[in-house]
Amino acid sequence: MTHQMTLLAKGRYVARIAETAGDVQAAQALRGACFSTDGPDADRFDSLCRHILIEEKTSGRLMCCFRMLVLQHAHQIAESYSAQFYDLAALGSVQGGCAEVGRFCIREGVIADPDILRMAWGAITAIVDAENLQLLFGCSSFKGTDVSPYIDSFNLLKARHLAPLPLRPRVKAPMVFGFCDLPCQAPDLRAGMRAMPPLLRTYLLMGGWVSDHAVVDEALNTLHVFTAVEVDAIPETRKRLLRAVAETA
After folding, report:
1. Which CATH superfamily is domain 3-246 in?
2. Contact, 136 vs 231, CB < 8 A?
3. Backbone phi, psi, residue 32, to 5°
4. pTM (2 decimals)?
5. What is the DSSP letter of 72?
6. Residue 67 CA: distances (Å) to CA of 20, 46, 119, 164, 246
7. I want to staple 138 with a disulfide (CB 3.0 to 4.6 A). Which of 56, 88, 101, 238 is the partner?
8. CB 147 within 8 A of CB 177
9. How do the domains of the chain map onto residue ranges?
10. For the segment 205-216, what is each residue's pLDDT rounded down to a tens digit?
11. What is the b/e burial string over 167-196, where b = at least 16 CB atoms within 10 angstroms of the residue's CB?
């Protein structure tokens, strides 16, 4: 591990950028286990992305991984993984660079450790600041393709967190769940937040927003929504917290 590849180290964990083919293969194996694929999870985007690994300092065990596709201009967003599933033409008008955060997963059994998610966002913050990025985006995945366990979550997204109309992604995938068509009813806020993926919860706490529909991804057995946060819109108090983590390398 070289110093420049280490993004930050704090407490039990270290976050670093994958350096070798073996590093990427370890991430793909963890993704395969988390997404219940038949073997490692890999696709053509892996070769275009930076792979971030969060490991235990003492054992070197991989606890969490995700990848980032850094784009210097928002009009390149059509080259992203998410653009396979969503019409993102409206986002081409965003000024500055952006990055897609994808394939985020945490080793089974350690999901309750908040330090892992904190480290992940600290690593993302370090890259955002180094590259002067203006937009973070990606697909936030709910496990399974049955919408019924997530009705409160989708009602909450509909009520409070939809993308601004000028930036809203349009339908592109063949199978979608348009949760904006749900009957109007007040969501159970606690149940709705509890059922959301941890990454999505954090996006929303930072002022993020989502598409008005979920894509039914049978290949990965997930429902996912396009999720984004504009860096300038993140509350200053939360920016300070993220940078405090990011600066502990």
Report:
1. Gcn5-related N-acetyltransferase (GNAT) (3.40.630.30)
2. yes
3. -60, -40
4. 0.91
5. S
6. 14, 8, 14, 26, 17
7. 101
8. yes
9. 3-246
10. 999 999 999 999
11. bbbeebeeebbebeebeeeebeeebbbebb
